[in-house]
Automatic annotation (TrEMBL):
The keyword Lyase does not apply. Keywords: Amino-acid biosynthesis, Aromatic amino acid biosynthesis, Isomerase. One of its GO terms (biological process) is amino acid biosynthetic process. GO terms for molecular function: chorismate mutase activity. InterPro entries: Chorismate_mutase_AroH (IPR008243), RutC-like_sf (IPR035959). Its EC number is 5.4.99.5. PANTHER family: CHORISMATE MUTASE, CHORISMATE MUTASE AROH. Prephenate binds at R7, R90, Y108. SUPFAM superfamilies: YjgF-like (SSF55298). It is an enzyme of class 5 (isomerase). It catalyses: chorismate = prephenate. This is chorismate mutase.
Amino acid sequence: MYNRGIRGATTVTRNEEQEILQATAGLLKEIVNRNEIVPEDIASVWITVTPDLDATFPARAIRGLSGWDMVPLMCSTEIPVKGGLPKCIRLLIHVNTTKGQREMKHVYLNEAKSLRPDLSASNS
């Protein structure tokens, strides 16, 4: 058994609570589905947002999902790098699995596909 990281990112169009929560939950569900994992497999989830997203804690979206109440979650703000992708939500899921690193399916949605086109193309 290994602890592997699965990355994901998405964007929203507005700094609004419901949009942030829906985008976060949608990204998480897509990562979970593509990687065939369940909350019991998850060691922790780190969620970051760009500084222009401060309407809510995105962890609230995950905490509200059935079975996710015991998964440790951490939210933080990304470093505000000039020219960085705005209104971006990123997830790093630490999963216990027997799969190898290359078997992990990273998910990039919406404008975040531009962050890792090499991974986005193979996981569309």
